[in-house]
């Protein structure tokens, strides 16, 4: 984790293969890496925590708790989808690609038209 933060912080041109790999493998960890390497934002930390909490409830078959957590997680993803930094938008696209329950059509449509090619590709692949 710390090595990735240093790598991202010290390289302006991060290879798309690296970005794709870390976001596909662990979107939450990737978001935290880019957040920490840039200018740490506590709102992003909260968003990742709330989305991760909802994912945890889903994986551990706590349907009632998942249903309670889902709207707030979706709201955080919608906010990240409008984030100035591409990596916030990438996180939103990748989470929704990997977790159908989190998807909102209007958010996916917006992300599929994103200027960042990796973001738009992740969103488009979720819509297929």
Summarize the structure.
With 128 residues, the chain is an all-alpha fold. It has 8 helices and no strands.
Protein model, in words:
The protein is mostly helical and 128 residues long. The protein has helices at residues 2-10, 16-25, 27-37, 42-59, 63-80, 86-98, 105-112, 117-127. The radius of gyration is 14 Å and the shape is globular. The N and C termini lie far apart (32 Å). The model has no long low-confidence stretch (mean pLDDT 96).
**SSE order, as H and E?**
HHHHHHHH
Radius of gyration: 14 Å
DSSP strand tally: 0
Mean pLDDT: 96
Total helices: the number is 8
* CA-CA gap between termini: 32 Å
The major β-sheet equals: none
Helix amount: over 70%
> Uncertain spans, ≥5 residues at pLDDT below 50?
none
Portion in strands = under 5%
Structural shape: globular
Class based on secondary structure composition and strand pairing: mainly alpha
